[in-house]
Amino acid sequence: MIYASALIFGIILIDQIVKFYVKTHFYLHESVEVTSWFFIRFEENNGIAFGLEFFKGNNKIILTVLRIIAVGALCYYLRHVILKGVKRGFVLSIAAVIAGATGNIIDCVFYGYCFNSSVGQVAEFMPDGGGYAPLFCGRVVDMLKFPLFSFTWPEWLPVVGGDSFTFFSPIFNLADSAITVSVFVILIFYRNYLSESKDNHNESMAEGK
Question: What's the average model confidence in pLDDT over 176-202?
Fold first, then answer.
């Protein structure tokens, strides 16, 4: 339990330090080229991850509440698998997912209240005039961009012919990375634990009948 808690705390701390730095040193859409394939580009989004958008405006609170519920369920599941004595790698993967989700929840809950707008300016922390949004309605801070390579689709291809394509174009943050990498690790190395959980759930439902 200690190592899982330490991982969660570590990921959240690093994620928030990076976001706080970007928020207080970059204006929105500002970009710095580190290498030809790595940019620091400050963006904000209302969505799940990698800039995807599903909820906007007042409905943003729905997404934030759903995230909090999901993290609560994952914490309960994490405690269950730790007590069950499963492999440490699976426990750490679940912990990293919790940490990543919590990191983005912090943005949604507090950043709108604690920072003013970053449009055309560097945001202030706890400004006198108040933040850009009420509690639970903030936007997630993204900053990592890895345009590894680009090319132009051949003209003869339908729909995309002549268009340029960049891999990888989405902009994301450390919390997104923790979630994505952990999910891939679970699917590749620990799928059997997911199957066991599903089987145990079905058995419990059958016994309840």
Answer: 82
The residues, ordered by sequence, that sit 6+ positions from 18 with a Cβ below 8 Å of its Cβ are 143, 173, 174
Is 193 strand, coil or helix? helix
User: How many C-beta neighbours within 10 Å does residue 185 have?
Assistant: 16
At 96, the amino acid letter reads A
Residue with tokens 């450390």: 174
Spatial distance between the Cα atoms of 94 and 75, rounded to a whole number of angstroms: 9
Catalytic residue ranges: 142, 176
**Residue-averaged pLDDT of the chain:** 89
Question: Distance between CA 137 and CA 120 in Å, rounded?
Answer: 21
- Per the CB < 8 A criterion, the answer to whether 133 and 115 are in contact is no
Q: What is the SS3 assignment for 21?
A: helix
Q: Is 132 helix (H, G, I), strand (E, B) or coil?
A: coil
151 near 164, Cβ under 8 Å?
A: yes
Predicted confidence (pLDDT) at residue 208 exceeds the cutoff of 80: no
Spatial distance between the Cα atoms of 24 and 65, rounded to a whole number of angstroms:
26
pTM (2 d.p.): 0.86
pLDDT surpasses 60 at 51: no
DSSP reduced 3-state for 59: helix
In angstroms, the CA 151 to CA 130 distance is 45
Question: What gap in Å lies between CA 22 and CA 41, rounded to an integer?
Answer: 9
Average of per-residue pLDDT across 138-162: 94
